Amino acid sequence: MGNSALRQLASLEEISFDDIEGSIVAIDAHNWLYRYLTTTVKWTRDEVYTTEDGTEVANLVGVVQGLPKFFEHDLTPVFVFDGQVTDLKSDEIESRREQREKLEDQLEDAREEGDAIEVARLEAHTQRLTPVIQETTRELLEFLDVPIVEAPFEGEAQAAHMARTGAVDYAGTEDYDALLLGAPKTLRQLTSKGDPELMDFDATLGEHDITWEQLVDIAILCGTDFNDGISGVGPKTALKGVKEHGDLFGFLEERDEYIESADQIRAMFLDPEVTDDYEFDTEMNPDIDAAREYVTEEWKVHADEVERGFERIEESITQTGLDQWS
DNA sequence: CCATCCGA
DNA sequence: TCGGATGGG
């Protein structure tokens, strides 16, 4: 479980929205949507966002409800979408697919037994971001003139890169991988209620007196999206071991362990494939009526589910004057 | 996030 | 006995 390990090493600081007013944030679109769908929309009451042919577009509700949070705090989101899937990650995706199949079996059992709570819980876990969800999200964002960047591979890596080059002020994701990717400052908890959390890269390295490379090695020892990690090794042991030996290899040797393609995994974080060939305009000029029509007419999402969201978008935009022409 | 387990 | 890792809810 790489995530919980990194959480313990990360330098995290609670901040307020006032501190980051006016900032540009590169949002890992996949992560943001996934968070939103599992926590807020929760796939309950699917009649609200399911078309006659059974296509579920809960994401449209999620986007409309989630965007006001940015605008009301005068934040400009830049949504970064995933591109091609990388080889190493394919294994992970494959294993997730297997896991999902397992979950789907359990789901079937729960349905048969009429266990409604278990059904709801499992449903939340078996959902995934379908191509329709990705595509309709893009289109809705385009109506609202929200900046979009297409990553060549991992959206997360591209977002971190944009933060590193200063193209944006922050990366925005719940994922601790942003640290491994070297995003200088990452905002977390942008979707949930309450205050956001700032994760600081340099402070993290400084607190433990380690290099970026060593941080990545520690994460690899604990397990990442790309590898399982060493059993019995958590953040403390890995930190100590890497500092003692300088990197993960000495540590592995000592414990007579081996990690498949450790070098490639390192490179996924230290030198991922990203691009500087993109552009976005932070001067937003949304067509809210067209967006509303797209969601409620074209996709037949119940109007009352999104009305408040659209109102909030309208209000926040006139207030902050993001859009000076309409 | 907490309870339980494991190993030094 | 305790710090750290794990796993389930």
From TrEMBL:
It comes from Haladaptatus pallidirubidus. GO terms for molecular function: 5'-3' exonuclease activity; 5'-flap endonuclease activity; DNA binding; magnesium ion binding. Keywords: Coiled coil, DNA damage, DNA repair, DNA replication, Endonuclease, Exonuclease, Hydrolase, Magnesium, Metal-binding, Nuclease. Residues 93-120 form a coiled coil. InterPro entries: 5-3_exonuclease_C_sf (IPR036279), Flap_endonuc (IPR023426), Flap_endonuc_arc (IPR019973), HhH2 (IPR008918), PIN-like_dom_sf (IPR029060), XPG-I_dom (IPR006086), XPG/Rad2 (IPR006084), XPG_CS (IPR019974). This is Flap endonuclease 1. Interacts with PCNA. PCNA stimulates the nuclease activity without altering cleavage specificity. Residues 1-103 form the XPG N-terminal domain. The lineage of its organism: Archaea, Methanobacteriati, Methanobacteriota, Stenosarchaea group, Halobacteria. Its EC number is 3.1.-.-. Gene3D superfamilies: 5' to 3' exonuclease, C-terminal subdomain, 5'-nuclease. Mg(2+) 2 binds at residues 175, 177, 225. Belongs to the XPG/RAD2 endonuclease family. FEN1 subfamily. Mg(2+) 1 binds at residues 28, 82, 154, 156. Residues 142-210 form the XPG-I domain. NCBIfam families: fen_arch (TIGR03674). Its cofactor is Mg(2+). Binds 2 magnesium ions per subunit. They probably participate in the reaction catalyzed by the enzyme. May bind an additional third magnesium ion after substrate binding. One of its GO terms (biological process) is DNA repair. Structure-specific nuclease with 5'-flap endonuclease and 5'-3' exonuclease activities involved in DNA replication and repair. During DNA replication, cleaves the 5'-overhanging flap structure that is generated by displacement synthesis when DNA polymerase encounters the 5'-end of a downstream Okazaki fragment. Binds the unpaired 3'-DNA end and kinks the DNA to facilitate 5' cleavage specificity. Cleaves one nucleotide into the double-stranded DNA from the junction in flap DNA, leaving a nick for ligation. Also involved in the base excision repair (BER) pathway. It is an enzyme of class 3 (hydrolase).
